[in-house]
Amino acid sequence: MSSTMPQPLSISQPCPPLPMQVSRLAMTRKILDVPHLYQALHRRKTIESKCLRFIILTVCRPGEVVKLPPAEISGDYKLWTLGQGRRKHKGRHSIPLVLSAQWLVRGPLSRSECPLFQKQGGGPLPLPYLNRELAAVGFGKARIYDVRPSFKRWAELQGASAEDIARVLGMSLVEPDLDTHRRLLERWAEYCMSSR
User: Fold this and answer.
1) Is residue 167 part of a domain?
2) DSSP 8-state assignment for residue 75
C-alpha cells in the first residue's frame, strides 16, 4: 500500500465534524474500513455483494444503483448516465465507470427498464437485503449509506477540493469534469482493492 493512502478508520469511530449545511443525519455517519469491506464482499458471489461493490466503486446513492436500468450504461460500459428524475438533485449526472465497475455490469445491455441488480424473482433489490449482506460479511453495524461519507473523508485526505468531491458525489448542480471524476474514482478503486 502506498504511503499516501490514509489508514482506514475503525467502524466504531464517528464521522469527523462536518460543515453546518450538512444534515444532522449525515453527521452521524460512520467512516468505514472500505478496503476490508470490499475484499469481504468480493469473496461472496451474491447479487447483493455485486450491487454493494458497484455502490462502493461509483459512490452513488444506493437507491440510484438498485433501480439502475441497463439503458443508462453506455454500450462500451465506460459511462453511466443517470437520467432526469432518477437522482436526488434535478438534472442528469454522468459517472465514469472504472474497470472493476464495468465488469460488474458486463453482459448484454438491453434498452429495458428492468434493473440490472434484481432480487430473485425480479424487481430491484430492497435496501434491507443490502444491509443483511453487510452483516453477513461482518459489518453488521454499518449501513450502505456510510460509503459516501467514507469516500468524502478519503478524498479530503487525498487533497481533492470540496467542489470536486461534491460534484463526484452528485451533490452539485454543476457536472464534474469527466476526466477529473474518472481519475478520482480510479484512485478510490485502487484504495478499495488495496490489501491491508
Assistant:
1) yes
2) T
Domain that holds residue 41: 33-192
Give the pLDDT confidence of 120-149 residue by residue, as tens digits: 888 888 999 999 999 999 998 888 889 999
Task: List pLDDT tens digits, range 140-180.
Answer: 888 888 999 999 999 999 999 998 998 888 887 777 688 98
Domains: count for the chain: 1
Contact in structure between 57 and 42 (CB atoms under 8 Å): no
Task: Note the pLDDT tens digit of each residue in 43-98.
Answer: 998 999 999 999 999 999 898 898 888 888 998 999 998 877 676 666 678 899 99
CATH number of the domain to which 38 belongs? 1.10.443.10
Q: What burial letters (b/e) apply to 29-50, b meaning 16+ CB within 10 Å?
A: bbbbbbbbbbbbbeeeeebbbb
In a domain, 13, yes or no: no
* 4, part of any domain: no
Q: Residue 22: inside a domain, yes or no?
A: no
The four Cα atoms 158, 196, 61, 41 give a dihedral, to 10 degrees, of: 160
> Dihedral through CA 180, CA 186, CA 192, CA 195, nearest 10?
-130
Cell numbers given for 87 = 437522482
